[in-house]
Specification:
Elements (H helix, E strand, L loop, with lengths): L10 E5 L4 H10 L6 E6 L2 E6 L2 H20 L4 E3 L4 E4 L3 E4 L2 E5 L8 E6 L8 H7 L3 E6 L2 E8 L2 E5 L10 H8 L4 H14 L1
Parallel strand pairs: 8-9
Antiparallel strand pairs: 1-3, 2-3, 2-6, 4-7, 5-6, 7-8, 9-10, 10-11
Length: 192
């Protein structure tokens, strides 16, 4: 069953002219609020509250991607929305993130669900952190980027998830529920 995606808006606040020390003070004040995400890049703070719809899609994407990695026998460390930072430069919380092989302070793959802001404009933050691969899911479409010496390059196939059928993944993400999504995803992987 396919679900029509209504595009909810996450609540968002942006403020420029903050020092890293001011950002860290604000960040510590929100430490007990998991539905509030904070981003910092070059003196600009972005504070966003997540919508229930974002959490649903983030969870479905995470579960399906992890299913793929496990079926492929890949060693992954799921790091979720952990804070990724480079002091005085950038701080990001992806919706989902993964390290391959071993735990690292900066994950190898970050995934963002985009409802109201972000997408390609967030690539500068990820580049400042040195995240090798970033995926954005917006309006039912995945956009993949891999970091090269000259910056992020748009790619059609993940360099970490070689063989992942993104058409299948997309169909399953917009499925009516997680159980149906996982069943369809596993069936589709078995047919490849």
């Amino acid at each position: 069953m396919t679900q029509i995606i209504d595009k909810p808006k996450d609540r968002r606040f942006v403020h420029s002219g903050l020092s890293w020390k001011q950002f860290k003070s604000i960040q510590s004040g929100f430490s007990g609020f998991p539905s509030i995400r904070l981003f910092y890049y070059q003196g600009t703070l972005e504070l966003a509250s997540t919508s229930p719809e974002r959490e649903i899609f983030k969870s479905i994407i995470g579960y399906l991607v992890e299913t793929f990695f496990l079926e492929q026998g890949m060693r992954i460390i799921p790091t979720g929305s952990m804070t990724q930072e480079r002091e005085a430069v950038a701080s990001v919380q992806a919706d989902e993130s993964y390290c391959f092989g071993e735990s690292k302070p900066i994950p190898d793959l970050s995934i963002e669900i985009v409802f109201s802001s972000g997408g390609e404009s967030k690539l500068e933050r990820y580049q400042a952190l040195g995240v090798p691969e970033v995926w954005f899911w917006e309006d039912g479409v995945f956009a993949l980027y891999h970091l090269r010496e000259s910056g992020y390059e748009r790619i059609t196939q993940s360099e970490f998830a070689s063989g992942l059928d993104f058409a299948l993944l997309t169909r399953c993400v917009v499925s009516a529920d997680l159980t149906d999504a996982v069943r369809e995803f596993r069936r589709g992987m078995a047919q490849d």
